[in-house]
Each structure stands twice: as structure tokens, then as C-alpha cells.
């Protein structure tokens, strides 16, 4: 009698079972990573800029084990880098949503500046962001410039949102102008956060005017 396990049908069944198991395990792993990220953010928020949380503090808050932590992150620095990257992606998504409400490139740029500086306008958001940046100091530039291997870039993903409106405004090099604007505005955000100062509407307008003037006041090169 032919061994059924060697047939093509049996191979298909084995593959389907393996795929279902991997999919289920992948969902479980994704859930654990999210728990670690959220727990670390919460612990950092509570610690502020006075102490850096230990891995033991984070896994306890997440309700997981050290083994689970090191399954995904080789070190606490790797977790901090992931938190910076996750925060940058969330902010990028928020900014894109706000910019989509505007029909003109000028309006989009203003929305971008307002959205970035809004991170310092709300006390809870500002304290959380500052705590993350303080923990990120061990990675180099707390806001992430993307130069060091493995260091997350915050400015880079945010700058990409400015490329299209800058191009519409006549920038000769929209990539470079977007990068410069992102460095300037995110740098100003850092000043507000570390100074525990909330930007006024007039200051936000001034920063937006400056970002626009840097592109619109300069004629495109041939």
C-alpha cells in the first residue's frame, strides 16, 4: 500500500498547517512587540528625564518575560530605537492626514509646521516626547539623523512629506530643501521641549513663514 504521507496532497496539507501555525505565531509575536513598545513608552513617561528604565521595569509593565524581550530586541538601545522609529511613523501619518486637508502647497507646508510644533503645545505629549528623546541620547542625536548604522531617522521620514509641496512652490532641489526645513523645524521643536516652553500661535506662524520663504524667495536655478 502506498504511503499517503508521500503524496502531493499530503504535502499540501502539511504546508497549509505550517502556514496557519506561522500566521498565528506571527500575530502573537506582533502583539508581544506592541506590548513591549507601549509598556516602555509608559515607563519612560513616568520616569521622565530623571532615570532611565531598566529592561526589568519594561517587561514587568508589559507582563512579559526577559526571554520575550530578548526574542525581539538584542538590547534596550534597540528597543529605544524602535520607539523612536514608531513615534516618527505615527507623527508622519498624522502630518500626512493634516496636510491632506489643504488644497495649496503653502497650506500643506503650514499644516506640516503646525503639526510638528504641536508636539510641544500639549503638556502630556511634550513630556512623553521629551522622555523618549532623553532616553534616545544614548543613540546619538535624540531626534535621529539616520547617519549612524541602526539609528532611526525622525527627520528623514517627516521631510519626505515636504518634497511635493516644495516642488510645486518652485524649489530647484525639493529633496534638499525639505531636508533643511525638517532639520530646522524639528530642531526648534527640540528647543521648545527641552526649554519646557509651548510655542505661541505667532511663533508657529513665524516658523511656517520662514520655511516657505526659504523656498519661495529663491529663484530656481537653471
The proportion of strand residues reads: under 5%
Shape: flat
Average pLDDT taken over every residue: 85
How many β-strand runs? 0
Number of helices: 9
CATH architecture of the largest domain: Orthogonal Bundle
User: Into which percent range does the helicity of residues fall?
Assistant: over 70%
Overall tally of structural domains: 2
Low-pLDDT parts are: 141-150
Strand-pairing-aware structural class: mainly alpha
Q: What distance lies between the first and last C-alpha atoms, to the nearest angstrom?
A: 80 Å
User: What is the C-alpha radius of gyration, as a whole number of Å?
Assistant: 23 Å
Order of helices and strands: HHHHHHHHH
Question: What is CATH's topology name of the largest domain?
Answer: Tetracycline Repressor, domain 2
Taking the sheet with the most strands, its summary is: none
Structure, explained:
With 222 residues, the protein is mostly helical. The chain has two domains: 1-73; 76-222, Tetracycline Repressor, domain 2. It contains nine helices and no strands. Helix 1 (8-47) crosses helix 2 and helix 5 (105-117) packs across helix 9 (201-216). The longest helix has 40 residues, at 8-47.
For the structure shown, list the relevant keywords:
flat; Tetracycline Repressor, domain 2; 222 residues; mainly alpha; 9 helices
Amino acid at each position: 500500500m502506498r504511503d499517503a504521507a508521500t503524496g502531493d496532497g499530503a504535502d499540501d496539507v502539511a504546508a497549509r498547517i505550517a502556514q496557519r501555525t506561522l500566521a498565528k505565531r506571527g500575530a502573537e509575536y506582533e502583539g508581544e512587540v506592541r506590548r513591549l513598545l507601549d509598556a516602555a513608552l509608559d515607563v519612560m513617561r513616568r520616569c521622565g528625564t530623571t532615570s532611565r528604565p531598566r529592561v526589568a521595569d519594561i517587561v514587568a509593565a508589559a507582563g512579559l518575560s526577559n526571554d520575550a524581550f530578548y526574542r525581539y530586541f538584542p538590547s534596550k538601545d534597540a528597543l529605544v530605537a524602535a520607539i523612536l522609529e514608531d513615534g516618527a511613523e505615527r507623527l508622519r501619518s498624522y502630518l500626512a492626514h493634516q496636510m491632506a486637508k489643504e488644497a495649496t502647497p503653502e497650506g500643506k507646508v503650514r499644516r506640516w509646521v503646525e503639526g510638528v510644533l504641536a508636539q510641544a503645545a500639549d503638556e502630556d505629549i511634550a513630556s512623553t516626547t521629551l522622555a523618549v528623546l532623553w532616553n534616545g541620547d544614548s543613540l546619538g542625536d535624540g531626534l535621529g539623523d539616520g547617519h549612524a548604522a541602526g539609528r532611526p531617522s525622525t527627520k528623514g521620514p517627516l521631510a519626505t512629506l515636504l518634497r511635493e509641496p516644495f516642488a510645486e512652490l518652485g524649489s530647484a532641489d525639493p529633496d534638499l530643501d525639505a531636508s533643511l526645513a525638517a532639520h530646522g523645524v524639528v530642531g526648534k521643536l527640540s528647543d521648545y521641549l527641552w526649554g519646557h516652553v509651548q510655542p505661541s500661535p505667532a511663533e508657529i506662524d513665524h516658523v511656517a513663514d520662514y520655511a516657505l520663504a526659504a523656498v519661495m524667495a529663491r529663484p530656481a536655478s537653471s
